[in-house]
Structure formats: C-alpha cells, structure tokens
Amino acid sequence: MPEMPEVENIVRGIRKYIVNQKIVDIEIIKGDVIKYPEIKKYKELLIGNSIKAIDRRGKYIILKMDNGILSVIHLRMTGKLLYTLQNQPIDKYSCVVFYLEDGNKLVYADVRRLGTLEVVNTDELSRIKGLYTLGAEPLSKEFTIEYLQNILKGSKSKIKSFLLNQKNIAGLGNIYVDEALFLSKINPLRIATSLNDMEIKRLHEAINKVISAGIEDGGTTFRDYRNGLGGKGSHQEHLYVYNRKGQPCRLCQTVIEKTTVGGRGTYYCPSCQRLDS
DNA sequence: AAGGATACCTGAATGC
DNA sequence: TGCATTCAGGTATCCT
Description:
- This protein has helices at residues 4-18, 39-46, 129-132, 145-152, 159-164, 174-183, 197-216; strands at residues 23-28, 34-36, 51-57, 60-65, 69-74, 79-84, 94-100, 105-110, 116-121, 257-261, 264-268.
- It has 277 residues and is α+β, with helices and mostly antiparallel strands.
- The strands form three sheets. The protein has a five-stranded mixed sheet with strand order 2-9-5-4-3, covered by helices on one side. Strands 1-7-8-6 form a four-stranded antiparallel sheet, covered by helices on one side. A two-stranded antiparallel ribbon has the order 10-11.
- The model has no long low-confidence stretch (mean pLDDT 96).
C-alpha cells in the first residue's frame, strides 16, 4: 500500500505524540509479522526503553530507542502504524500493540500480514538488506540529474521495473512510478539505457514533482492506506493515469490503458507516452 | 545482470 | 446466491 509519500505522512503525523515516550509493554496478537529477533527477545529489547526519534528511509520506518537499538518497520502492502488513544478501540487487524507510558498506544495492524517488524543494533543494520542497499531519496541533495544518468547507464531493465527497484531510487512504488512516467512522457516499456538526456531531465523533475505532491496531499488512499492518526490522503483525486483505465487522459483525452510490466499492473496514456517517436 | 515465476497472506471485486 | 478466479500502494528468493 504505502509508498514514500504515505510513509512520510505516517512518520510526520505521529512523531510529536510518541517521541520521548517509554514503551511500557508490548502485546503480540499476530506474532508472525515479527521477523527478528524471536518474539521473546524482541519484547525484551524494547520494553522499558524510550523512543528517541522516528524517521523514514525509503519505505522503512525507523524508531531510534534510547538504548541505542533500532526498531525497523516495513508496511509492505497493507501495513498500518496507528497512534491510538487510550479509550479508542484498536484496529480490527492489529498484530502488535506498543503501550506507551501516557496510556496511549502505537498499533501495528496489517490485513495481509506481509509487513515486517525487526529490532537491530545500530552496528547490525546490514542485517536488513533491503534497508542497507537503498538508492538515493527523491527530493534529496544526492538525487541529481547526474545521479539518475549514472544509474540508468547500462541498465537493460524496462524503465518501469528500473524505477520500482529500491536499489536505484528509494521510495517509489507502483502508483508514483506510473505517474512520473506519464508526466515525463516516457512509455513504461522503454529500456532504461535508451533514455536521452532530455528524457532523463524530464524524468528527474517528474519524480520529484509527483513525490512532493503526494506528500503534500497526505498520500494516496485507495483502500487500506491511513496515516498514523487514521486519516485518509487525497492524492488519488489528482492522479493522471494510475487506476484510470478506460478514462480520458487529462491532457489529450485519449483513453488510458492498462497493461502488465514486470508483473505489475501499469497504467499509461498510449498517446502521450509513445514507444516509438 | 535481468527477468520471470513463486511465495508470503487476506479480502474485495469480478466472472460465470 | 454461490463458488471460482483475479487482483491489490511490496519485496525476497529461486530459477533460467
């Protein structure tokens, strides 16, 4: 479900409520989402310690604890992290409840339970390979046109698959990739290395544009996504192609098509995003 | 190195 | 109404 703008909104939304709070207890409802270490050890490492900071890297949420350990959460498709008041019912699909010292809770809920919760020491971050190998963040100083040029060079992947690969750019997912390719007028089937300088420049700008719009709109909510306080995003109202199969292109009125690229549903405008010319 | 299929899971939507 | 199939904001792994 959540791509970088959604995860960013979750983190920003709950930060002021949970930082400097101690985790006084942890209730495990569906323990299979905890991947490392084993549940008993996981609880031991967190209970009695305070949350010093909450940050995001790619689609990962990282809680820094005052004992130097990191609690790392990835929401995958349907995970939610919900700050829930003392007197409020917890989500129907709650898996793990972190009880905070002020009586309120931080709840990890996940319908499909594909998400992952892990605890590691700062010196064993490489244990979480997906986090360790992330590429540059959109909107960051590191993410320059030159950076994009360099990573595209020599890649025979289709551009859609290339952009979904977190090792290249961190945080893009199925929605924002389709939107960025539309804005830069690039067909999703194009081979990465075939993009010319003009196209790379447009793509770079489009990625930053869709990601910042997504963040400002509070994320995109189709079904499961909720921010850390349970609210929906509104970016779904501003999408150009994603989930718009059969509807007219907002720029040229051509009917938006849906196909499959690298196993993922892919929306595009056959007129704005030509494969030839 | 790349790309496909498969696996992890459940629920909603669609098809017959 | 019921039952089967398909698909979903993701990624790791195994195999050509």
